[in-house]
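Table S7 (text form). Paired inputs.
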Amino acid sequence: PGDWPGMVSSLRRDQRLGLSLFRRSERLGRAVMARPVARTLRSEAGTIRLLNRLLRSPLDHDLVKSHAADFWAGAQEAFRQGPAAYVSEARTWADELSFDLASVRTAVALWHGEEDRLIPVSHSQRLAERLPNARLHVIANEAHLHPPHVLADIASDLVAPPKAASTTP
């Protein structure tokens, strides 16, 4: 949550600037994002350049390069209806949580690359500390994006997630 002390300040300057803008006005955020989104939808090469500029990790760059068509297809689908969902998600992240994390009884698995240059691993660590049934998997030698072998491990958590703690005495 963006309202936790240090969460926003731990982001890169460009991310903090965008978040500040999106917080002020959803309409302005959509207008600012319209051009980069349009460029992303225009070409695979443009999408790859934008992802590499955003992610800034050689590990992520290698993964994007080896799966460029997949990332382009994903970007096209993500932005098919424009930037509104992206801006809305950023605004939601920046807002105060509407519930107490300690009340979450469902088992939660968090996966975070230790070399992530987009979102610091400290964000997932703090979240795991506050969720009573969380398991944090910090993935060595991985960044923001995860290759197929890691996605298979994540999928195994979806198929057979850990059991939540019992709420009965």
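Next pair, protein 2 of 2.
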Amino acid sequence: MAEKAKNKATQAFALNEAFLRLRSNIEFSGVDDDIRVINVVSTVANEGKSTVSTNLAISYAKKYDKVLIIDTDLRNPSVHKMIGTTNAEGLTNLLKHYDPSVPLNQCPQIQVFALENNRTLSFLSAGTRVPNPLELLGSNKFRELIDNARNIYDVIIIDCPPYGLVSDCIPVSMIADGTIYVVSAKDTDKYAARAAMEDLKRNGARIIGTVLTKVENIDSGKYGYGSYYGNYYGGNG
């Protein structure tokens, strides 16, 4: 039992360190730019995209006072499950009657969670399902919401839908300062990932790096969440 607890603590420490390094790499990649709005994309579902988004947001919250994570996967949201909260009210509900004159942190859909060492993380869930996710994310209201967030938060992390299923991530990538592309060592088709990144760049996305997930643990033979940041499958980070 003690050995199991020790292994779990070791894995948690390694995961924490991996995302702190990812945060540092992003900051250094933007030394001449202001990279404050970062969206996270993958090719298909279950490649670890939302895990990366959530842990990256937490790592930023350990350094910055005002960090917001937004779930824009309106068809299959999952960030609220990882954080342990509800998706009853979120982005879609906020945009329905959005008033840009109201500071975003005063909107009731924004949830604030306490982290260790008196740190906090703000969260805007996906919200009620809508029939037109792409139209909503490509709207002027959504762009105004992100502009509003820039005036309040130090960093905004946006969890996007997988690129290979729908085009919802394209308008989000166009207004973000940088895009992180998630690649699963176990599941991702490298040709599909390369084609997706090239298409995103053609549509105005700035891919600042990639993260490799589900890396096999050599000692145990099991797959877990590791990370790699850099030039992978055509990334220009």
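Residues 2-29 form the longest helix (28 residues).
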